[in-house]
Amino acid sequence: MRIIISLWFCAMLVITTMTEAHPMSDSQRCICIKGVIPFIRPRNILDYQVYPATPSCDRVEIVVLLHKPRRTVCLDPDSSIGQRLRFAKLN
To answer: Among 3.40.50.2300, 2.40.50.40, 2.40.440.10, 1.20.120.80, what is the CATH number of 26-90?
Structure first.
């Protein structure tokens, strides 16, 4: 009986080490789900936040608070102003 339990335990150990971890769901939890805008005039930027890629969202996101109208929008991180904002946040 002990041999059967030992073999079962070894088999379960081998099976669990061979399986890969998968996310619980395929949905992304990104902030910018409605899309991004390619350009914002720098003088219209009141504040901004750069969110790096994470396991729950595989892209870099830049959320900008505008002066007028006072609202938040998502900026394209690959645009020229987006790259400048990303670089400025690093320094």
So the answer is: 2.40.50.40
Contact 74, 62 (CB under 8 A): yes
For the CA atoms of 75, 80, 84, 89, the dihedral, rounded to the nearest 10 degrees, stands at 30
pLDDT, one tens digit for every residue, the chain (91 residues): 788 888 888 888 788 776 666 555 555 689 998 889 999 999 999 999 999 999 889 999 999 999 888 899 999 999 999 999 988 876 6
Residue extents of the structural domains in the chain: 26-90
Q: Which residues of 66-76 are buried (b: 16+ CB within 10 A; e: fewer)?
A: beeeeeebbbb
